[in-house]
Design goal:
single chain, 121 residues, mainly alpha
């Protein structure tokens, strides 16, 4: 749900991108609050689903991949912004976040984690 909220807020900010800076800033900020919440949820899911003996190794690999791939993402984003324009790239980010929300709602891994939480409570 947080990802969907973030995607909607980002889409609204994309609509107002060149019209009203204040609305864009508020909506984009709300989107990143939702993305931050998603990051916390992702870490919690990893820690609950992975066996304790492997948790350190898996988290190390995840963080290493994020660190390795981030500069390439920045480079690709900058190149694409010059090629297709910043407005379209901004909208692609919003739509991607909405797509991730749909994926997360249908993912069996996440559903099994919710079921585990309901059983524990």
């Amino acid at each position: 749900m947080a990802t969907g909220f973030g995607g909607v807020a980002w889409c609204i900010s994309a609509f107002w991108l060149n019209r009203n800076f204040g609305v864009t800033l508020i909506c984009f900020s709300m989107a990143w609050v939702a993305i931050g919440m998603m990051g916390i949820q992702f870490q919690t899911l990893l820690q609950r689903q992975i066996e304790p003996d492997y948790l350190g190794r898996v988290l190390t690999v995840v963080y290493a991949l994020q660190g390795i791939l981030a500069p390439f993402g920045y480079l690709l984003g900058g190149a694409l912004a010059d090629w297709v324009g910043h407005g379209l790239l901004y909208l692609v980010g919003a739509v991607t976040l909405l797509g991730m929300s749909r994926y997360f709602l249908r993912n069996s891994f996440l559903k099994s984690s919710i079921a585990m939480h309901d059983q524990a409570v």
